């Protein structure tokens, strides 16, 4: 810069000129790197520039430099307008973000509600399936286990007694002349007879591991895990006496004055070569022998090896 020109300027004017030249260099740097000067800083500088406008642009500044002052002010004004435009865009974007956030919260709430409803429905379905499973193992008339449950429990107990090498016994109970009873008194009376017998047998069992099941129309099977022949014989005799004490009237042509019962039993210690079916077959043969030899008695036959 020529010394004469510097000398021509006063101290305040020289300072302002140096500030302007510095700002021109700064703005050139920012524009080159596409950096937008924050509007707040620009406004503070413009306010400072406005306050010093009178002493900066006067007759002592050569005309050749004055366009630079106008260019600087234009740059500031343009950047201020750009800052305002950016602020408006940011506000619009912020508003869109808020609206989108509200929408996402609404969708999340709906999704949570749907998940809760599905969870409740799945829980209810599991309960229904569990209830159906339970009902499929229960005799609908008497409320005691049916033949399917008996077979499952027999297989389970057989495996357990095989490991323990303990005896297992089965008692089969048949109601004598139930068909004639139904013909004489009607099927509703026959149903009540079956229910009363099922409850009496159930009540006569002493251990929770023992099971009575209605296996057929007039047949009840009793499973006694861990029970030897002598123990099973005592249980069979007790059941026979309990049923006789019911004194259910039966005046059919082939019957006595009351309903009578035939019982067949069998006992076995499970082996790896044996099967639950062999035990069932022996008990069935015992029941057949009891019915064949006069009914109303307990018969026990050995299990075939």
TrEMBL record:
Domain GGDEF: 166-303
InterPro entries in UniProt: Diguanylate_Cyclase, GGDEF_dom, Nucleotide_cyclase, Rev_trsase/Diguanyl_cyclase
GO cellular component, one term: plasma membrane
Enzyme Commission code: 2.7.7.65
Coiled coil segments of this chain: 90-124
CDD domains: GGDEF (cd01949)
Biological processes, Gene Ontology terms: cell adhesion involved in single-species biofilm formation; negative regulation of bacterial-type flagellum-dependent cell motility
Keywords, alphabetical: Coiled coil
A molecular function GO annotation: diguanylate cyclase activity
Pfam families (UniProt xref): GGDEF
Domain of life: Bacteria
Top-level class of the enzyme under EC nomenclature: transferase
Statement: the UniProt record of this protein carries the keyword Coiled coil: yes
Keyword Membrane tagged: no
Catalytic activity of the protein: 2 GTP = 3',3'-c-di-GMP + 2 diphosphate
Name of this chain's protein: diguanylate cyclase
The species this protein was found in: Syntrophotalea acetylenivorans
């Amino acid at each position: 810069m020529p010394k004469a020109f510097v000398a021509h300027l006063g101290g305040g004017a020289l300072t302002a000129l140096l500030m302007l030249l510095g700002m021109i260099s700064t703005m050139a740097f920012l524009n080159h790197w596409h950096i937008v000067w924050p509007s707040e800083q620009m406004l503070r500088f413009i306010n400072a520039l406005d306050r010093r406008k009178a002493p900066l642009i006067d007759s002592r500044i050569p005309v050749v430099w004055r366009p630079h002052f106008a260019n600087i002010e234009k740059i500031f004004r343009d950047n201020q307008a750009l800052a305002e435009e950016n602020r408006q865009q940011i506000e619009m974007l912020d508003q869109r973000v808020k609206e989108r956030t509200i929408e996402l919260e609404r969708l999340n709430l709906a999704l949570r509600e749907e998940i809760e409803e599905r969870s409740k429905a799945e829980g209810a379905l599991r309960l229904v399936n569990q209830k159906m499973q339970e009902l499929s193992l229960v005799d609908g008339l008497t409320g005691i286990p049916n033949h399917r449950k008996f077979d499952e429990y027999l297989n389970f107990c057989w495996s357990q007694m095989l490991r323990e090498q303990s005896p297992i016994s089965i008692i089969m109970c048949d109601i004598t002349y139930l068909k004639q009873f139904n013909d004489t008194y009607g099927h509703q009376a026959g149903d009540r007879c079956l229910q009363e017998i099922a409850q009496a047998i159930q009540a006569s069992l002493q251990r929770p591991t023992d099971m009575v099941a209605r296996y057929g129309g007039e047949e009840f099977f009793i499973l006694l895990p861990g029970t030897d022949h002598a123990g099973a014989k005592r249980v069979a005799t007790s059941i026979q006496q309990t049923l006789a004490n019911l004194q259910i009237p039966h005046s059919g042509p082939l019957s006595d004055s009351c309903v009578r019962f035939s019982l067949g039993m069998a006992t076995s210690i499970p082996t790896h070569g044996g099967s639950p079916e062999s035990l069932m077959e022996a008990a069935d043969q015992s029941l057949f022998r009891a019915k064949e030899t006069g009914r109303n008695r307990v018969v026990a036959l050995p299990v075939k090896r």
